[in-house]
Amino acid sequence: xxxxxxxxxxxxxxxxxxxxxxxxxxxxxxxxxxxxxxxxxxxxxxxxxxxxxxxxxxxxxxxxxxxxxxxxxxxxxxxxxxxxxxxxxxxxxxxxxxxxxxxxxxxxxxxxxxxxxxxxxxxxxxxxxxxxxxxxxxxxxxxxxxxxxxxxxxxxxxxxxxxxxxxxxxxxxxxxxxxxxxxxxxxxxxxxxxxxxxxxxxxxxxxxxxxxxxxxxxxxxxxxxxxxxxxxxxxxxxxxxxxxxxxxxxxxxxxxxxxxxxxxxxxxxxxxxxxxxxxxxxxxxxxxxxxxxxxxxxxxxxxxxxxxxxxxxxxxxxxxxxxx
Length: 324
Known about the structure:
14 helices
């Protein structure tokens, strides 16, 4: 794999692992959850609008704006608000571990929404193992504390929202350039949250730490991470690029422990291991189109075409559903 691809992989693994830290910093400083979500969406939307306009891909969303609205609500406005709400009550580490269960949620939804992807055999075993991890986490580290249960429940609901995205991208939004989809979704998400954000503005001017956190969430974790992920997919293909799913939660937990001084209980450690193992099994012991082949081939160089534009054409890319 090229140095450019390795650099993008490392960067996105970090950028999709750090949101929980900065969300925690923002809400602990007193910023309302909806204001945090709205701010990062506005910042990200402004940046991506400029990129999508330059690429000339926004026209692809004509006639599908209602699906862009749906994606903006389920993948951004709602979960981006629920996660800060949850992090007012639970640690960033616990939040990241719960968000890592998104592939399990996708597998559960597939039972109803996509018969071809129904869990059987090893995939069913993966669901059981992964959900056991969620139970272990909730039952050991959170049980008996109503505020933490409320926070963890909000994060799990956000994870369920994330899991809806892949079915929309494979259906009504199939074939649309991903940057076009996400840009339109961010705009709709920001517009949807505007009345709520204005109704619950911060009581005081945000501190330097909180303000910097919002900028990092919007610029780095939303806009920059998406563009870098698109470049990575163009370099190595979606199957290898999505290995990030298994790296970013570990980055998030490491930051929570080292930067915020959070401690991991027995339930958190057991939950993380079981959720990651269950997610791996629930995707047929692979990361589509193959974890084993992806890892074996990861260092062999690009298999996808080089994009002819400054920003790659990523119409076949799929955005990871575990982005906080």
